[in-house]
Amino acid sequence: MHGTKHIHLIGICGTAMASLAGMLQAQGHRITGSDAAAYPPMSDQLLAMGITPMQPYNEAHLDPAPDLVVIGNAISRGNVELEAVLDRRLPFTSMAALIHDEFLRNREPLVVTGTHGKTTTTSMLAWIYETAAKQNPQFTPSFLIGGVAENFGTSFAVRESSPFILEGDEYDTAFFDKGPKFLHYFPSAAILTHVEFDHADIYADLAAVKTAFKRLVNLIPRRGRLIAFDASENVTECIAKAFCQVGRYGFKEGSFWKLTNFEAGAISRWTLLRRGEHFADLELPMAGEHNALNASAAAALAAGEGVPAAAIVEALKTFRSVKRRLEVRAEVDGITIIDDFAHHPTAIRETLRALRGSYPGRRLIAVLEPRSNTLRRNVFERELIESLAMADRVVLAEVYQSASIPAEERLHPAAVVGALNIAGVPATLLPDADAITTELAASLHNGDVVAILSNGGFGDIYNKLPAALRSR
Fold first, then answer.
1. Rounded to an integer, what distance in angstroms lies between the CA atom of residue 224 and that of residue 149?
2. C-alpha of 23 from chain center
3. Strand (E) or helix (H) holding 275
4. pTM for this entry
5. How far apart, in Å, are the Cα atoms of 367 and each of 90, 419, 429, 433?
6. How far is CA 374 from CA 67, 123, 388, in A?
7. Going by C-beta distance under 8 Å and a sequence separation of 6 or more, which residues neighbour residue 63?
8. Residues 109-142: pLDDT tens digits?
């Protein structure tokens, strides 16, 4: 785009949409945007940039007519602003297409993909490059992350240099483009962390998910590079026809990048081998094997692109997490309250396993709002029960906006709670954040660790529960 344009974003509070707003504003464009309901961290980031989200959606937000409208992938036909855009024939595009056209054409896109760990791994890779850039400016990264990276205090940066590190989402692009967002990014190198069935609202089955990842792999040029998890048959299938160099990573014997001597705890330590030879001894101030795997994937891609091992070691040692990823929100009377963006039973299992390692011997209470399009459905009901059973106690909220899910597809929270109680894990079903806050404020005691699991605002429970505990 030449010259200053007025660009309006419908659904501006989505993590990637809010980041795009900042990227476009930094290029000198005038940005407006609307959403149904703004909540942190992205609403805070927008306000800090001087962009106030207009709420709720209203056709009047398109007066005077913007030069371009970006339509978020959560926006469907029937949205009053979208209908006005179509009626008035205003120019519109998707977030992913605009990112490609405006920011990726003359850069090297390094794309992090997979069912789990994308946001954390993207943040790690960006911080590795930022650390390496202190010695060599050619590594200075631009980045776009699906969350606020604590090391940067933001979810995006656009620099003049070549590397552009992106979180590549397999979710669909827009109401008019049902392909995955990551197909717009044309990576020169990529990470594939895991492939599982997810996004049950747009993918019919696992085969459809695998097709999306196979298409991504098919976009990587021969000169490119793919770093892929070694312990997933689904990943193996998806990368089988890659034309580029492939490096597998994980704990398996014979993997190109092998983790060994893993020491669990609040600080994870391990040795990373490259082709069986010592590459680096790594230390990460985060718990969980899954985070060590994420860090190893980022290290492997960076090393392949020429980043020195010393910069990788320093970056991981100084890495601070992502907002809403095992984020400690409060400590009150010896009770630790943790916020985690849990969207899938596997993610819940790994979160609870990591907390067991970080807080040994303490009572672990899992508080879940079934809010993602996968968790709101019964497709993973059995796996969800198994994952939640890792907690000492479970509190379940009702399914978020349950009426929008067909009854025969809907998760049955009462069945989940019943199965947990039969398995000996005390579980309770409560209607909403206020009821949960009241119940927990009366029953928590010193030493408890509360993991709040949701990919949304969850009725502001993150602030209500600490406030209720302080006023006891």
1. 26
2. 19
3. none
4. 0.82
5. 44, 16, 10, 10
6. 36, 24, 16
7. none
8. 999 999 989 999 999 999 999 999 999 999 999 9
